[in-house]
Amino acid sequence: MTRYCPCRRALFILMLVGLAGLLGGLCSPSASVWVRAVPARAAQAATPAATPQPTTGQPSGAAVSEPQQVTVGLYLSEVHGLDQQESTYFADFYMWMRWRGDRDPTPTLELLNNVARWTLTMTPIFPKPVALPGGETLQQFHVQGQFYEPLLLEDYPLDAHHLRIEIEDSTYATDQLVYVPDTAQSGISPDIRIPGWRVTGWQMAVHEHAYETDFGITGTAGHHTYSTAEFDLNVKRPESFFRWKLLLPLLIVLLLGCSVLLVHPAYPEVRLAGPATALLTLVFLQQAYTSTLPEVGTLVLLDKIYVLAYVVVVGLIATTILTSHWIRGDEANAAKAQRLDRTAAAVLIGLFLIGTAILLIPVL
Fold it and tell me: What is the pTM (predicted TM-score) of this model?
């Protein structure tokens, strides 16, 4: 006969209780898992409602403390691969952050206009932020990556651009953290060379970036503002590129087209061949430079100059047809036709030069 053992019954009950606790822990979400499910920007907006704030020793209703200031500096050492079709470029620079306070801004910084994120390298210079003698904390980074900045080509080929690097905190709003530009120590390397472009300077500024959204967290303010630091490298296309490679061939074509007016009006076939050849040449020249540009949806500066050139060629063709008609009607009209040729040549060339000057004055 089996004897009853109270120890076995107690052991069996303990095992059931432990199994129930284990199943309950697996089925209920933990606090850490819930926090990670909240977007980075919205998590800090929802934190006051979900987690009690630590006491600061201030009485209720006390003034809110000032946001932590973070000094941001940048030294640009190299820029290459500027692609006007894609509006992208590669940059190599050193960046540093210096601050006072317990909040470390380095884990939450974000390079807003970085593209091809898999190619970005941001290497900390120090294994962890270092304390400076003045009481501030410093961290430095060596950054290499591809960045995007829309190139506005309305003034092509005399266009100027700002190659921008945008730095923003991804978590702390302006009531908690603001950037201060270190313009005294920031700068660019004197060895920066960009083929086809001339570096004209740099500038650095800080502004507020507002997001008109609550990032999916209902019950919070739908307006969040973050501090953004911007570093601009100013570049401009050399004027010699426009004068010698674009404008000079255009002027030669127009002058050769106008030279047919020196031919006697009695040879209309020869006179018509010149403007027709000039027209085809203009079309090919325009296609040559437009193939290097992206689709801008509007006329660039050089397109407007070519419109004037087309007007000159059409004027030449019209003059040639009119004078040929006069000669066929009466040979005595030859002197009259030649006077019209000289007048038309002067008016058309003058129209092109004056129109071109008017277009160039705002960009020079």
Answer: 0.76
pLDDT tens sequence across 172-229: 999 999 999 999 999 999 999 999 999 999 999 999 999 888 778 777 666 789 999 9
| Three-state SS letters, the chain | CCCCCHHHHHHHHHHHHHHHHHHHHHHCCCHHHHHHHCCHHHHHHHHHHHCCCCCCCCCCCCCCCCCEEEEEEEEEEEEEEEECCCCEEEEEEEEEEEECCCCCCCCCEEECCEECHHHCEEEECCCCCEECCCCCEEEEEEEEEEEECCCCCCCCCCCEEEEEEEEEECCCCCCCEEEEECCCCCEECCCCCCCCCEEEEEEEEEEEEEECCCCCCCCCCCCEEEEEEEEEEEEECCHHHHHHHHHHHHHHHHHHHHHHHHCCCCCHHHHHHHHHHHHHHHHHHHHHHHCCCCCCCCCCHHHHHHHHHHHHHHHHHHHHHHHHHHHHHCHHHHHHHHHHHHHHHHHHHHHHHHHHHHHHHHHC
